[in-house]
């Protein structure tokens, strides 16, 4: 019944075994070890293209590094109003860029609306120093609302970015959950649809601490290694990150784990949909499910041992949530079980 | 024969076992889990005082966080000219402070000279905005030269810091190596001698990635948690760091590992001292040993499989190092062996 | 007919005479001259309280200095969505704070709505490092929409700021225009109603370049002098700023100039109100008047020599402005004349 | 007898007349006015090449803008250990670059030694993120020690900069004083000898507040306009700066004023050289003269109305200055007179 977050789960056995395997002996430090190089090549294989991989310790670091790597004076990044980048990173992207601005863009279900994006970008005309200059569009896949951009939706966003010379970044804290939901290849979900770089998160999907900024476009983010070092994310024993990634990709572990948590997510969604006590806030098909309940009832369920968190009401839902109600988020992890869903259902419905 | 760095070694078995033990199940994220709390208390026990512990991923992050936590407009930190803070962090402390300055202070054997520190501090008179304002003194224990400040030497530095209202920070990337060499308690080597905060490093001493900024003085570094978040060092699964620390302190593992690497360091020093091919650059009693050799000879030894790195010639040694010579650094790790020393000696002397 | 901006006008004769008078001979540099001290005292007289005065070169600098002076890690400033601070400073406040965030707050007629402010402030709970921490509320008087907060409205905003421990800053780029419209004393419009600091602008009201951050609360902005220096706004020959201010206050020149430009503003508003070609966008009583016109017609008037600029449509007006229409801004300056108004009227109506 | 600084003098009559002349009527704001454009063209004429001119309010701003305009992650600027950039700007260059580092380089008489520069640059190998990356060499002409680089010395520095792909910046706070001393054209003293940009100072030479960053190389500093705006140095009524520059160049006023202050400097140097109470610290040929005197005697002269400041003892002079002595600086301004020299001499020698 612990659906507080997918980062409440620990590390998968395969991840631990790889760490164990690589824990003895010597390896060159600071990302220049043999394993580090091999895992970088694995990323290239997974994405079917040459790419530069910057390992970091957190998604906050990956996202901030992405913005900082393309920063120019007066730089502005366009992101969804509910994006983790603005709503949950404590201002890290602004800090890492020495004052870069996040321009918030609306859109339903956690997805940037192309029209709203065009309008926002138009608000920063080129060479107009009274305002600043657009440098980056960043979107989250899957979104903070548990939804996914379709490939068509991605293309629409990327077309706007390209048209205005903006880099396109994907916050992939739940990249795997999105990938198995959209049902395409990693390449299709990224560079084949105009994405220049991805914050590739594995922590929420069964690793301890394994994140990377993956850069497809060799022209951008050229000096990301300097920024990473300055953010304190160049690990001496980088192999503790790369050992995790090795196991993560081995035998498609990452996809298996994501399919599992998505399937529990689907079970949660079904349970909510059929409930007469709570109702679905909006449909989502990954491992994050959102429901509306009375605050007084929710606190009873939390007392009974259930774990989930309130979620800020999206603007489009303000009318639908009554004063004594609240939107709540359920997150399934790689160790969530069908029994967890049933237990939660029992707590809610009795 | 691999004496390149103590961060070329992996993770000790006890560290791995603890990670394994804590890898399953759920824990509250972002440092609020039960293990996280318990390990914070262990730090308080180890240091025999209340302290705030900010877990981070690298020594670079801990050092930068220390400076940033006490930063004021125009802030200046005083450090040794060879300090890791200035010579090896890629400008991270300046970056994290949005432009804080490192004022370099001389001193023999890697240790800040009290006289030189007084002169440097006097160079920034109070309330003189044409220059900036001193905010921090930072020293490394053990130093980048493998030496240690005695408790008396620490007191001399801390007296100057206190006199001018400056916070005193210790870069303890090799805190354990210093502690067993100086032969005192953690409290004596820190707050009992005026140290306000320590970058407590465990990575170089058998952990994967376990660093913390430990703050003794509750009046300073009040908002370090915001800075840490902005640097991307608030880990969701913080228990992967605290699990390492738990094992690190358990049964004094940390002291055992440090005694071991120091003893290998001593064996290396003895070997160098008795050599007729190389000579000791300066005496040091921890796990870092420095020797002078001909470049042409050193490259032969490296070809033969030995591993060590050149080290910048300290100003005080410039006269002693001939043009065809170079200072080199040997670092013993927790897995270095007496046989490694003998093999290296064989390579050098045959 | 040149109503492009009040900063298109030059410098009033009295200002020039004072500069001329103070141009010869020596004076101690960097703000420590006799005249500099006297003018600081004049500010204290004008505001009927002790205050610290930081002379700077632009309103952008004064506003950025205000935010930077109270900055803490993760700091957030709350401002109106149309505020100069966010819409016209090229990101300077974010830059000066190394990544401080501007949280945009809605409200009609350019004024922060107390309810919207309370909601925005509540969005940053204390000690929650995933988001940041509120440090400042900043409002513009008179607003970018030419309107003024009444003393009651100021009190409502300041009560919210105080309740949450936030500093309150007033962007007074057109302080004098507001003052003569509200009809109160400088003290009443500021510290007596909870304002902690004011960007006191004189440039738009007949000076060349005379701006100051005036700080009433001695507890805040203690280190503003270091920030000002770092922004490059500590002028060596500060008397060129203070000489302007001396004349500005002498014989209430500042109020006379502001009354004049407001009166022309009123004439413009009357002209617009009576027009059958254009209509008032909203009522405002200072020197800035906003009207709605057809784009095609406006371009004809501009061809005929009139000068005014388009203004972004406020959210509340989106419904009222037809696709072929645009909001335009007219600004009267200290040298605008009744004849200018008549000429503009003739161009528009014939 | 007021030789405290050349910025203690006010503004020359010609400067005031130009300000007066341009004070009435309207002009387009923010540097787009007719006068602004004409003065930019005058700069091109003076330097005999196309150049971009960024007007700012202080030398601190111009120098910081120079560094910030070429900043890259981990960027390092090389400057003389006594340079204004490091010794008198309150950390503004580091602040404007979000943490750029000033690497101090030695050299006699305030001039960067080519050998020391080469060694310093070599200390930052390319693509080595543990240290940072060189981006800029900055030198002062005339130097803080009143001396000037010869054209050959400039070429030697610029060759090193070019060889390593570093931009070359000249801090020309006293550009005119250097120019008339070196006796060459502005072009020869800058871009013809490899200088990419100049902080062109006029304030110390008879203006109120007239500084500009002049950029010769169109490939660098492309986004300086955004940085200037963020530093709060885009003046709305830019004509108050350009009006000063117009008069400054008109009829070679700038050269006349500089020749005058240099000639007074020479008279001061002669007086010091012939003194039996004080001695010349080192020879300099511009408007800044440095002498060594007993502290006790100097305070008597100051009591008697003389004005001059102590100057930090350069490393090369440490042996020559006795404990009861001090180095002092005399600065002649555009209004200094031969009588001032004689009065000072009388005070010293009686």
Keywords:
homotetramer; 350 residues; alpha/beta; 7-stranded mixed sheet; 4-stranded antiparallel sheet; 17% strand
Question: Can you give a write-up of this model?
Answer:
The mean pLDDT of chain A is 96. Helix content of chain A is 38%, strand content 17%. The first copy, chain A, is globular. In chain A, 63% of the residues are buried. In chain A, α1 crosses α10, α2 runs parallel beside α10 and α11 packs parallel to α13 (338-349). The first copy, chain A, has helices at 13-21, 34-47, 59-69, 84-87, 92-96, 114-122, 151-163, 175-182, 224-230, 239-249, 253-273, 295-303, 338-349; strands at residues 52-56, 75-80, 101-105, 133-140, 167-172, 197-201, 211-215, 279-282, 288-294, 309-310, 325-331. Chain A is built from 13 helices and eleven strands. In chain A, the strands form two sheets. In chain A, strands 1-7-6-5-4-2-3 form a seven-stranded mixed β-sheet, sandwiched between helices. In chain A, strands 8-9-11-10 form a four-stranded antiparallel β-sheet. In chain A, β4, α7 (151-163) and β5 form a beta-alpha-beta unit. Chain A is of the alpha/beta class and 350 residues long. The longest helix of chain A is centred in the last third of the chain and has 21 residues, at 253-273. Chains A and B meet through α1, α3, α5 and α9 of A and α1, α3, α5 and α9 of B.
Q: Layout of helices and strands, plus pairs?
A:
The structure is a homotetramer of 350-residue chains.
Chain A: H1 13-21, H2 34-47, E1 52-56, H3 59-69, E2 75-80, H4 84-87, H5 92-96, E3 101-105, H6 114-122, E4 133-140, H7 151-163, E5 167-172, H8 175-182, E6 197-201, E7 211-215, H9 224-230, H10 239-249, H11 253-273, E8 279-282, E9 288-294, H12 295-303, E10 309-310, E11 325-331, H13 338-349
Parallel strand pairs in A: 2-3, 2-4, 4-5, 5-6
Antiparallel strand pairs in A: 1-7, 6-7, 8-9, 9-11, 10-11
Helix pairs in contact in A: 1-10, 2-10, 8-11, 11-13
């Amino acid at each position: 019944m612990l659906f507080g977050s997918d980062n409440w789960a620990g590390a998968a056995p395969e991840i631990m075994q790889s760490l164990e395997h690589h824990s003895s002996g010597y390896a060159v430090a600071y990302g220049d070890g043999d394993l580090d190089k091999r895992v970088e090549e694995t990323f290239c294989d997974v994405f079917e293209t040459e790419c530069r991989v910057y390992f970091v310790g957190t998604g906050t670091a990956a996202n901030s590094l992405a913005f900082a790597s393309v920063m120019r004076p007066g730089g502005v990044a366009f992101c969804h109003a509910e994006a983790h980048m603005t709503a949950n990173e404590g201002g890290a992207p602004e800090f890492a860029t020495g004052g870069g601005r996040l321009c918030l863009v609306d859109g339903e279900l956690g997805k940037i609306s192309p029209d709203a994006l065009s309008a926002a970008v138009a608000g920063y005309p080129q060479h107009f120093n009274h305002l600043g200059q657009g440098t980056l569009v960043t979107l989250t896949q899957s979104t903070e609302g548990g939804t996914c951009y379709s490939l068509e939706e991605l293309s629409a966003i990327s077309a706007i970015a390209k048209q205005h010379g903006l880099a396109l970044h994907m916050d992939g804290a739940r990249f795997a959950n999105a990938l198995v939901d959209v049902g395409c290849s990693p390449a299709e979900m990224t560079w084949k649809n105009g994405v220049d770089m991805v914050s590739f998160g594995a922590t929420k999907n069964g690793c301890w601490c394994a994140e990377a900024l993956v850069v497809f476009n060799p022209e951008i983010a050229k000096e990301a290694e300097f920024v990473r070092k300055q953010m304190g994310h160049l690990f001496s024993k980088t192999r503790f990150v790369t050992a995790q990634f090795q196991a993560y990709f081995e035998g498609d572990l990452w996809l298996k784990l994501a399919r599992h948590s998505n399937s529990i997510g689907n079970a949660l969604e079904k349970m909510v949909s059929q409930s007469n006590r709570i109702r679905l806030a909006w449909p989502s098909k990954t491992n994050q499910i959102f429901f509306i309940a009375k605050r007084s009832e929710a606190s009873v369920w939390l007392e009974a041992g259930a774990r989930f968190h309130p979620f800020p009401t999206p603007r489009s839902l303000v009318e639908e949530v009554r004063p004594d109600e609240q939107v709540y988020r359920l997150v399934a992890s790689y160790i969530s079980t069908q029994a967890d869903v049933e237990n939660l259902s029992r707590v809610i419905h009795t």
